[in-house]
Amino acid sequence: MSTPQEFLQEELEEPHSQHDSHPLNPDMAKVQQRTRMPSGSETLVLERDPQLEDVKFANGASSPIKPGQWGRAWEVNLFTYVGVLLLLTACPLLVLYFYIACDKYQCSLTTPLLEVYHGEATLHDLWLKAPAMTAKAWKVGAIWLMWQIFLYVGLPDVFHKIIPGYVGGVRPGARTPAGLVNDYNVNGLQAWAITHIVFFANAFYFHWFSPTIIFDNWGGLLWVANTMGYAVSIFAFVKAHYFPTCAADRKFSSNFVYDFMMGVEFNPRIGKWFDFKLFFNGRPGIVAWTLINLSAAFKQYELYGHVTNSMILVNVLQAMYVMDYFWNEHWYLHTIDICHDHFGWYLGWGDCVWLPWMYTLQGQYLVYNPVQLSTFHCLAMWGLGLGGYYIFRAVNRQKDLFRRTDGNCLIWGKPPKYLQCSYISSDGKRHQSKLLLSGWWGLARHFNYTGDLMGCLAYCMSCGFGHLLPYFYIVFMLILLIHRCLRDEERCRSKYGNQWDKYESLVPYRLLPGVF
Fold it and tell me: Mainly localized where (predicted)?
């Protein structure tokens, strides 16, 4: 469950990492010195003690390397177990509650709870307001899933051949803990474009269905999506135990519930090209994101005879991020979802249910509460949203430039500074990485998240201040991204050891310089 393009500073690997049989242990470092590279880039080099050359330790750790030590946890404590049970129980109920609040209470989150508190209704009464399962919703959901699978597996990308600057087709992913580099069929932009063309053609030319079809069946589709999310999660769990894609990239804890939620297999696949992570994160949910918002806009027009400027704001700003995701889908192969997370309920159910229902709350809200913003408010939201997107894109572009040129570039007009690091994959080989210290990446370790949060705030504030519901998204994303900061840094500390501590001393802030 993520927003588009949440890139990691940690994933600054060289395009073709080199390794040898003698991993570098930074605890052995005796001298830190600055060295000028031919391009003028400045790097920090850790010098090895040759007398300890043959001692294999994890980077900076005080004990020998454990294969696959970076990734999800091996062991589960009581606090984690309780948290997992809470998420498994609360998240599906929360999505259902938000739907009921919108559909029955004009998007008020407090009214249904106050009714129960004052004895005006019971929890059973609230449950009776849940949406009904419908045959039409099952039909729509099944066609949608089959259509997206066909576009993903059955239609090779041609956009990269005809659109200048677009990178698609077969692309290599990041190296897994077992040392594998998988190929991915990057054709999301093509799938998104074809899907939207077919939707508009069927809705407005052939008139096979109404453009409000998604909104009109939103309640029934919630049951379909839950069924899909649980089915794929259970299948992935069983597959990991009995017919894994790569047994060396699995992780088991002693806790059945934790393994089900966080996943066992790192990159589950069916055949050569159907990758669970790439498909479920991008296709059922993110392709649908813009269609869900458009369906809400059409519903607003159907009900009120016009579309508010707030609805246009939400549609355009969120569409920018969706388009950005698919334009840069090859970059997604180096994000935390692909490089770190195993595939379990967290991604399976989250991508099928949480993302399409909770990330589109603003469009749903504006159907029930049409808000026409003042000119100043509208312009301010455009500025906040576009400014956040600019920062988000500029930060990621700097890292991509640095990675593609292997540091032989200019960032903010100067040769970049970086920290040269190494790490060990579970096959015992040493690989090289570079952690960028210049530009946006010198201001904060996750400045791309800062731009992302600015965009999230713009979505929410575009809905005015009448209810709390549309602001759930910014609260959730703030918690999610701060947690990702901490989780990423803990992983990097495990992976790089005291090399990461050195990096943190050079870039001390996470999101806002001088604040956090």
Answer: endoplasmic reticulum
**Does any domain span residue 424?**
no
Residue with tokens 């713009």: 458
Strand-pairing partners, residue 169, are: 186
Residue 194 one-letter amino acid: I
The continuous run of DSSP H or E covering 46 comes out as strand 42-46
The model's pLDDT over 296-334, given as tens digits with 9 standing for 90+, comes to 999 999 999 999 999 999 999 999 999 999 999 998 888
What tens digit of pLDDT does each residue of 358-413 get? 999 999 999 999 999 999 999 999 999 999 999 999 998 898 899 888 888 999 98
Buried (b) or exposed (e) across 262-293, using 16+ Cβ within 10 A?
bbbbbbbbeeebebbbbbbbbbbbbbbbbbbb
CA-CA-CA-CA dihedral for 67, 280, 80, 247, to nearest 10? -30
301: exposed, middle or buried (Cβ count in 10 Å: 0-12, 13-18, 19+) = middle
CB atoms near residue 512 (< 10 Å) = 12
- Per-residue pLDDT at 81 exceeds 90: no
> Which of 392, 364, 358, 384 has its CA nearest to residue 477?
358
The first and second tokens of residue 278, run together, are 């790439």
| Integer CA distances (angstroms), 102 to 194, 218, 224, 310, in order | 31, 11, 19, 17
Residue 364 resides in a domain = no
Q: β-strands 169-175, 42-46: how paired?
A: unpaired
pLDDT of 179 strictly over 50: yes
CA dihedral (473, 99, 367, 204) positive or negative: positive
AA identity, residue 294: L
169-175 and 181-186: which strand pairing? antiparallel
Dihedral over alpha carbons 293, 294, 295, 296 (to 10 degrees): 50
Q: Kindly state the greatest CA–CA separation across the chain.
A: 79
**How far apart are the C-alpha atoms of 423 and 235, rounded to whole Å?**
33
Domain count for the chain: 1
Residues of the domain holding 196? 132-295+302-359
pLDDT at residue 272 tops 70: yes
pLDDT in tens, 122-147: 999 999 999 999 999 999 999 999 99
Phi/psi at 170 (5° precision): -80, 120
Predicted pLDDT at 340: 81
